[in-house]
Structures
1.
Amino acid sequence: MEEKKARLPLIEKISYSFTDMAGNLIYCTISSYILYFYTDVFKISVAGAGLILLIARAVDAISAPVWGSIVDHTHSRWGQSRPYFLWLAVPFAIAAFLAFTAPNLSGNAKLWYAGITYILAAGVIYTGIQTPITSILPSLTNDADERISANTFRMVGGSLGAFITATFCLPLVAMLGGGNDKKGFMLTLVIFGVIGVILLLLAFKNLKERVSVNSKPIPFKDSLKAAIGNKPWFILVTSFVIFWIAQSARGGISVYYAKYNLGNEQLTSVFNGLQVLGIIATISIPFIVKVTNKTMTMIIGLAIGAFGQAMMAFAGNNFTLVIVAWIIGILGAALACAMPFAMLADTVDFGEWKTGIRASGFLTAVGSAFCIQLGSGFGSFIPSKIMAAAGFVANKTQTAASLSSIRFCFIWLPIIVYAVSGAIMLFYFKYEKMEPQIKEDLEKRRNV
């Protein structure tokens, strides 16, 4: 089909950016502030909150392959991935609102409420949104350059969504709550939820699935078959899970670092608001990929991110140097974060080339939502355990040991994780070199 290789209209690329803008607007609010909400607003101990996040994420991770299989079984008049933007937009917004509602509960009831609402918002329903966001990319076009371009639009949209929540969440909580953070978080999530629903509905309206080689639902066992032996997919998934440990630690601990180490909680909005500068790195991706390749682009991003974190370690309380170092880290993280989403489409091609099965939903669900959930779960759990062991107590003057634990989790833990993630990606080079031949072989098969 000539249509498969046609350039995507600008309106579709912009609409594709709306998917991640909506997802990040709500999900980044959860990932950045839920630990703080639990400990400082809902009054759950840091150890209890960390355990909730880990258990919830471990359970949620199971939903990734389930959602992937569901998408692979979907054949509607709107396509395979696209209809979920319509079906799940409103449930996603409602679930996020409930997660940031603090009813008057105590003891185990409070823990159960937090766990269930968190699983729904950040797990089950978010996975249902995240899966089609990634799985639709290989269906939009077969053209490698257009995939990179569309994914760049998506990541820019995601950065804007993250920027909105990072910059305006806490100020909105303070303004709308009038000193009552419980009320402030609830009203803020109403606003973010409405915006998210509108963006997802616009994406549903404007996107078009062009590449469809599955005429009937794919059995779950066949989805597994497309994954088993898919070595580039395993490399990418492993590296991305580990990468998200660092991302979650940086984002989740920034509020503690600003509040307790730097003495100004509102600096969190500055830290997270600067995330929008990641757009600079994101829009440069197509050019960097042409000069190097996709694998090297991700490794370069990880190296820049680690360098920025290391600079921050030596900046002390010099606010200017801290911000410069933080910006460098943002640029590196943005490069590294964007690449796996685009590269997953190539692993779908590899799976089809090797097995004859195009399991877009399953492979991209596990490669995106599963990685984000599992990595973020450990990225919240590990710091919570380190801080708890050091004697952290919310809303109290922290001991030297507690301050050191926050500093380690915010600065050094991401550096360690970036190094491990980059080392794993070194094994991906040889598979990227195979991609032109794989695409050529697949075109021949489809035209027979």
2.
Amino acid sequence: MSDLERYSRQILFQPIGEEGQRKLLNSRVAIVGVGALGTVIANQLTRSGVGYIKLIDRDLVELSNLQRQILFEEKDARLHLPKVIAAKNKLNAINSGVTIEPVIADVNLENAEDLLKDVNVIVDGTDNFMTRFLINDAAVKHGIPWVHGAAVSSRGMFAAIIPGKTPCYRCLFPHVPTGTGETCDTIGVLSPLTSIIGSFQAMEAIKIIVEAETSPNLEQLDIWSNEFLQMDITKGRNPDCPACGKREFEFLDRSSRQQIVYTTLCGRDTVQIYFRDKREIDLKKLGASLKKSGKVLANDFLLRFSPDDQISMVIFKDGRVLVHGTNDSVKAKLLYARFIGN
């Protein structure tokens, strides 16, 4: 069987053809976040014949992931496998001709450029704004196209971002949201939604690789109410954008006011998280959201949230958070993203 026979039905699609398929086989893609979106993206790109896929994720497989994270099985959760390892095992069985590189890491300003600069396309499978701004800075700095995606509850969105051609992510979203953000762990998410958004992201990545036109829109949809919105972003480039306009990559700059600081408090089994750029948290709104996920105690000054018997999170009005029960800053960051968002 020839190398191309596997992809015969894809090659029959004229906009791809044999030339496009060979481009896919010679391409390199990084997927940041191998959860609900990332597993769908990885599955689609592996089956489509992307030659090299770098999977980057910091987390382990849990039972609650199986409702929507399509590459994982119950045994992966029982074994507490890192998501990238479990995903690699499944993807190797799907297409042994694709090179899968699993990277167990938290993408941050220390490693983002090294992890992302050697690929043709970056695809966003993350669940928080800070990592997306970081991806955007790395992508714009190195001229790498990337595909943004997000899904929570029944709502999702995606957009293809091509440095020098389209608005960058920071043109569309100039500032990191203040306060708190909705997350899958606080308001849930529907499995069909993540499959739809992840598939659209994979399709945009394939278009970039075969040099076809990507969607000119920030596409938004709500699959519960069947609402769809296409926002034309072709004229959205901001000449004063810090990233693509001024080429000031604040999220790659340790001294920037945009950074979040994670400090392990010696002898206290606690990690402190705070924003250099001050913000104010609506404790009442946050408490109402977190009650679905654990125990909440609050007063006018702070809120204490306990998702389980080992971990408690103390959130102050100025956005500072103490994560008690761990001295691992990566775990603390994961807990923050899961329950508080941005």
3.
Amino acid sequence: MRTYQVQPGKAGEFLQMYQASGLPIISRYARLIGCWTKETGVLNSAVFIWAYDDLGHRTSQRALLAQDAEWSTFVPRMLPYLVHQESVFLNPVAFSPLT
């Protein structure tokens, strides 16, 4: 789960830019489960859930993403929008529908 807190008033612009430019790149390395904005808690935030087989798979895929030249040019375009970002690795339990 990746949470981006963006500059106040910039969430819509950030999400449009991310969808058009970032999503096609990162989707080569991870499967998007969903993206949400927050109505409570830390506002001006977008939460992405990306699927990986396990933590090792995430580690290897993120390493490949870091080497992707298109990603390297996208990140500097994304950074001015950000106030804070957080990554949390979630392990599904046996009865989780997304396993």
